[in-house]
Automatic annotation (TrEMBL):
Record-stated family: Belongs to the eukaryotic release factor 1 family. Pelota subfamily.
Protein name, as recorded: Protein pelota homolog
UniProt organism field: Symbiochloris irregularis
UniProt subcellular location: Cytoplasm
Database matches in InterPro entries: eFR1_2_sf (IPR042226), eRF1_2 (IPR005141), eRF1_3 (IPR005142), eRF1_Pelota-like_N (IPR005140), Pelota/DOM34_N (IPR038069), Pelota_N (IPR058547), Ribosomal_eL30-like_sf (IPR029064), TF_pelota (IPR004405)
Amino acid sequence: MKLLGRYPPCRQEGDVRLVPEEGEDLWHVYNLIREGDLVTATTFRKIEVGTNAERERVKIKLQVKVEAIDFDPEGQEIRLRGRNLTDTEHVRLGAFHTLELELHRAFTLHKELWDSLDLDRLRLACNPSLSADLAVCLLTEGLGNVFLVGASTVIKKQSVQVNLPKKRGAAAAGFDKALAGFHEKLMQAVVKAVDWDIVKCLVIAGPGFAKDAFKAYMDAEAVRQDLRSLILNKPKVLVAQATSAYQHSLREVFDNPGIAGQIKDTKAAEEIAALKAWYAMLAQDSARAFYGPGHVQAAHELGAIQTLLLSDTLFRVADVARRKRWVTLVEEVQKGGGTCVIFSGAHVAGEQLTQLTGVAAILRFPLPDLEDQELTGDL
């Protein structure tokens, strides 16, 4: 993400002008913009011209007060619906309009209050060294998907699907040729998607021998075609077991002990390790592992939180007071010497945490009395 200007002051009103440059940037934008914010961007509107009722597409600059947000990760687009605050000849003041935020198109975001978590996310998005640093190629015979896993989201960069003939009968003769064609397309997809200056590890995963066959093909063809990026980074390529080529199988890859040790230096591994530590503590000493707003807040009031686990979905709310309470919890835990790990709802670990209400904590010391209490409700 490119920041055109300076960061706004913390806990003050201000504007930022941003240009999303890759898919993960749009996930950051989606988490930054909330209902009530003001967004200014160029948009296009069809208007009638002349006496023949012909319609012409004109480019105009509008500011809307956001009332609804829709994010399309596949289409790499954010749609903001709200009332127009710019008086123009084409869109009347107060009329509803939908702004579309896309890659490489600048926009301005105005907030009445920039809190510390918003500014942390903004700095994360604008630092190019913190981009996706783990690539995963999930495949079965005839289907392959290449994902980039970053600090905040999972992006499907490439997808390859080929109809393979059956291995038996008259079509069997063409199977090997069709499989080689599939492997070639998938290898080119990997070459296109993976930036080895950023990616620290590529994991090839799938069921049976599909992953091993593709790895062998890629190694051989990299030498034959002199693909230097694959030859030089061969030690960074790992093979793992997975049951499918779809995104939900990423969890199987991350849960593999052999793979976990290899990807420990990637940013996605921090969330996975934190969640595993929470589950381990729950099994070892349940009085030191809690989840749910009520129990976590009670533990915080006793100064017991060592590690706080939060889903970023908790901060994507229109209720300013509610969001402020979560932000205050994070700041107070950090001030008390605790660690806070904010999970992306788009990651497999974040999905697991969301199923646990989106908030959990590992405590410094056991609280057996708290364990026996039934505490419900929101923070």
